[in-house]
Amino acid sequence: MFQHILVPLDGSQSAEQALPVAARIARATHASLTLLQIIPPMETLLSPIEPQVFVEDFSEDDVAEAKDYLSEVERREAFDGLGIRIEVRIGPIGATLLHFAREQDIDLIVMSSHGRTGLKRWIMGSVARHVARESTIPTLILRSNGPSPITANNTTNEQVQTTRVLVALDGSPLAETILSAAAGVCAALAMPEHGNLHLVRVVHVIPTIEEHKEMIAQINTQALADARAYLEEIEQRIHTGAFAAYHLNVSVSVVLDSSGTDIPLRLIETSTCAKGTQGFDGCDIIALATHGRRGLRHLIEGSFAEEVFDTTRLPLLVMHPLEAQIRKNVVAAFALV
């Protein structure tokens, strides 16, 4: 599963929402855990869609305060028996976080989407958005005051409700790169129970035109059949391939979208309740890969991942895969055929 997990902190209770989740995954996977605080230098953070934010200059006192804070967190009972270290870095928050993660061979980032407010702050919302778009490392983003994946599965019913992860797929090798992280997170958070992985593909169906009714019906029927066959193939891979040791329960659903533009909405609706799927009444995490689009292409095509990020209150597991990761995924898929 995972070997080295990173938790970015800024001293706030909101950012600390990531700690019990990261600790549980680390304990289940025997991973080491790094707590990181980044102190930004004097600068103006500019974004074409965000207001200007002025960040105070740092001092040696800031560094000492950060180290003291992380040392206090490290000593908490939740981390007993875990391999844990603390790090303080200085630099632009988003870029420094991602550089540190690559440099330290991090294979999972767990963070909150909001932190402190005021002049001297970690602008966690903007940082989380930046990481969601740019990180080539799987990143689990918890929403401030949103449900936690380690509390949402608690139930008063006699039947145990384990961790449920919805994985958004579109038939591409890029989308499939999130499967490994999704399976690993699902299995780790569900232990000692078996986690539930729900595979979803949204299919654009052509609106019916009376004069071409039969032809359109055939096209739509074939598209739905192809989508279901694809998801069932992925399900079989999970049960018989490298993920078989996770012993996950896997379900699939094909979701219809007649507009071709409401894929994020359909995913979020499905994350609440996948109608007609036995044993699935919602999920605790949404997992998807992102193209990491920027600039004009981003403005024209938009980003499904960012729309989901902006709309759902559920934790989001995201990554922007490198070309090498996509090629590796293609080779692995053919090897299992």
Structural features:
337 residues, alpha/beta, Rossmann fold, ten-stranded mixed sheet, 11 helices, 12 strands
The H/E string reads EHEEEHEHEHEEHHEHEHEHHEH
Question: Could you tell me the strand content as a percent range?
Answer: 15-25%
Helix content: 25-40%
Q: Helix/strand/pairing class, anyone? A: alpha/beta
- Total individual domains: 2
Shape: elongated
Indicate the mean pLDDT.
80
Per the CATH scheme, the topology name of the largest domain is Rossmann fold
Q: Can you count the helices?
A: 11
Q: Report the uncertain regions.
A: 44-52, 116-123, 153-159, 294-302
CATH class of the largest domain: Alpha Beta
User: Which architecture of the largest domain does the CATH hierarchy give at level 2?
Assistant: 3-Layer(aba) Sandwich
Please provide a written account of the structure.
The chain is of the alpha/beta class and 337 residues long. The protein folds into 2 domains: 139 residues, HUPs (Rossmann fold), CATH 3.40.50.620; 172 residues, 3-Layer(aba) Sandwich (Rossmann fold). Helix content is 39%, strand content 20%. It has a 10-stranded mixed β-sheet, with helices on both faces. The chain has a two-stranded antiparallel sheet with strand order 3-4. The two termini are 23 Å apart. 37% of the residues are buried.
